[in-house]
Amino acid sequence: MNTQRKVAIVTGASQGIGAGLVKAFRDRDYRVIANSRSIKPFSDPDVLAIPGDITDRSVAERIVREAMSHFGRIDTLVNNAGVFVAKPFTDYTAEDYANTLAINLNGFFHITQLATTEMVKQGSGHIVNITTTLADYAIEGVPSVLASLTKGGLNAATKSLAIEYAKRGVRVNAVAPGVIKTPMHSPETHAALASLHPVGRMGEISDVVEAILYLESAGFVTGEILHVDGGQSAGH
């Protein structure tokens, strides 16, 4: 087994930012483990698709087990899987609450705990959490309590883990995007969403991917919450 080439795990990898990350890591000659509930097999032998619900610990265990079995190492984990439900606070249902916490928090916890264990063994690794700028800077007219509750928690966890593992070779960072032009947003909403950003446009998938690639190569950066939000955070 060739264990010299780097290996990245990407959750939520079937479309949008996740699919962009799979391509970007392959362009850098990483081998990739791609997970989502609807992920399809890749023709590329250096991309291993593992379908399944990342909220299920057994799925996280399979991802890490297959990564080690096929590729022998884990260098990077990008916790990209997530959900955003925009409703007034009093309109959220118990199902909304449970589903958001399961995907945004459980989906982070299980895979990160297991991947970190392997990274510590090899003495190096990098974890990137995709959060949201709304966790730090709420916007009038954009109800976002469940996103702030969960993704704000990931921002805090990012800093905590960064310090806990700083001396063991594992870096932990987050990217906090504004509104990104993904299949999640229908074209008729784009003009209104663009207006939320001081730069006057929505973010592109490539904006987030490039931020993650920067963090991947920035060996002296850990515990950082990198806002990729078209000036939203500065505007506050």
Give a brief description.
This protein has 236 residues and is α/β, with parallel strands linked by helices. It has helices at residues 16-27, 57-71, 94-122, 145-164, 190-194, 205-217, 232-235; strands spanning 7-11, 31-36, 47-51, 76-79, 125-130, 170-177, 225-228. Strands 3-2-1-4-5-6-7 form a seven-stranded parallel beta sheet, with helices on both faces.
How large is the count of helical segments? Answer: 7
Main sheet characteristics: 7 strands, parallel
User: What is the level 1 CATH name?
Assistant: Alpha Beta
CATH architecture verdict: 3-Layer(aba) Sandwich
Number of domains: 1
Based on DSSP secondary structure assignment, what is the total number of beta strands? 7
Radius of gyration: 17 Å
- The N- to C-terminal Cα distance equals 51 Å
The fold-level CATH name is: Rossmann fold
Mean pLDDT equals 94
Overall geometry comes to globular
Strand content: 15-25%
Low-confidence parts, pLDDT < 50 over ≥5 residues? none
CATH homologous superfamily grouping: NAD(P)-binding Rossmann-like Domain
Query: How are the strands of the biggest sheet laid out side by side?
Result: 3-2-1-4-5-6-7
Order of helices and strands: EHEEHEHEHEHHEH
Q: Which structural category fits the helices and strands?
A: alpha/beta
Estimate percent helicity.
40-55%
Keywords: Oxidoreductase
Organism: Dyella caseinilytica
InterPro entries: NAD(P)-bd_dom_sf (IPR036291), SDR_fam (IPR002347)
Pfam family, one: adh_short_C2
